[in-house]
Design a protein that fits this description.
The complex is a heterodimer of chains A (59) and B (243).
Chain A: H1 7-44
Chain B: H1 9-40, H2 51-81, H3 86-116, H4 124-145, H5 149-163, H6 166-176, H7 196-242
Helix pairs in contact in B: 1-7, 2-3, 2-5, 2-7, 3-4, 3-7, 4-5, 4-6
Chain lengths: 59, 243
């Protein structure tokens, strides 16, 4: 596969898309872990839902 | 399971936990196939290898409008049906839509420089997509600025519905005005004008990116539901301490 005289534009496009998509994936994963940790912390401190079920249990 | 069952956040969380691993796998597979087909696609007789930028530019451009469409439906859910997950869906779609719109602008610009001789031109299509990007940022700022989630939800829903006027303007800008951007070549009356060698990788990539949005959106909605549980528990704890 040869990309010709405009290879830099093509490679920059694909790398930019990969970087932004990777950032989105990382944001979703880190946010999930952060919210689970906060819920566990609150439950450990004695905070419980009105239903009595665990707030951190999402399964 | 009916649609009304999904109105329950706990049921949504259970369903999300079950389908997300499968969605991740299917998304990765479709994107891998699309990237392979994009890599082996022939050069265009006019554009040369820069046609490969189209395989990522077009799906991002399509998603920039599709995500706003999803948010508009969710806005109706907030204002008309007061669906418990409607605001969660709209709020979490906004940053993902903003990212896709940014990528559509960036890759379009990187394609424009070698093909048009300029990174940017203030023509109808490019300008209307830039306005869409700014509207995404404005909505995200609104959700952050209003502390009460239900007030923020209603204000954001109204702004989303008003902003949806921009979607047909973007779509038909190339027909209504004399623009530098080429007219529609995939979704148009009379069928696609693209050769199969370009159309198939483009459609596979479009499906892959749509699945990527779906996966990220469901995962982000799950996070937002957990964030709201955190807020509720903190408020319950604060009211207990005060009492």
């Amino acid at each position: 596969m040869t990309l010709g005289p405009y290879a830099a534009f093509i490679v920059t496009s694909y790398v930019s898309v990969a970087a932004v998509v990777a950032a989105l994936i990382l944001w979703v994963i880190m946010d999930y872990r952060r919210q689970r940790a906060r819920l566990r912390g609150l439950e450990a401190a004695g905070a419980i839902r009105r239903s009595g079920r665990s707030a951190a249990d999402v399964q | 399971m009916t649609l009304i069952d999904l109105a329950n956040p706990s049921r949504f969380l259970t369903l999300a936990g079950r389908i997300l691993p499968w969605l991740v796998a299917v998304t990765a597979l479709v994107l891998a196939i699309g990237l392979y087909q994009s890599a082996i696609a022939p050069d265009d007789y006019q554009q040369g290898a820069t046609v490969k930028i189209m395989f990522i530019h077009v799906p991002n451009a399509w998603l920039s409008m599709f995500v706003w469409g999803v948010m508009s439906v969710a806005a109706l859910g907030t204002l008309v049906w007061r669906h418990p997950l409607a605001d969660v869906a709209a709020k979490t779609a906004a940053p993902i839509g903003a990212a896709f719109t940014f990528l559509a602008l960036l890759t379009g610009s990187l394609w424009g420089r070698p093909m048009w001789g300029t990174y940017w031109e203030w023509d109808a299509r490019l300008t209307s997509v830039l306005i869409l990007f700014l509207m995404y940022l404005g909505l995200m700022a609104l959700w952050r600025a209003v502390e009460d989630p239900s007030r923020a939800a209603r204000a954001a829903a109204v702004l989303t519905l008003v902003g949806s006027v921009n979607i047909p303007i973007i779509k038909f800008s190339v027909d209504w005005w004399n623009t530098l951007h080429q007219p529609a070549s995939v979704v148009r009356m009379g069928g696609s004008t693209l050769d199969r060698a370009f159309l198939i990788p483009l459609l596979v990539m479009a499906i892959g990116f749509t699945l990527l949005f779906l996966t990220l959106h469901i995962a982000a909605m799950r996070n937002e539901i957990l964030r709201r549980r955190v807020r509720t528990l903190q408020m319950l704890q604060a009211s207990k301490s005060a009492a």
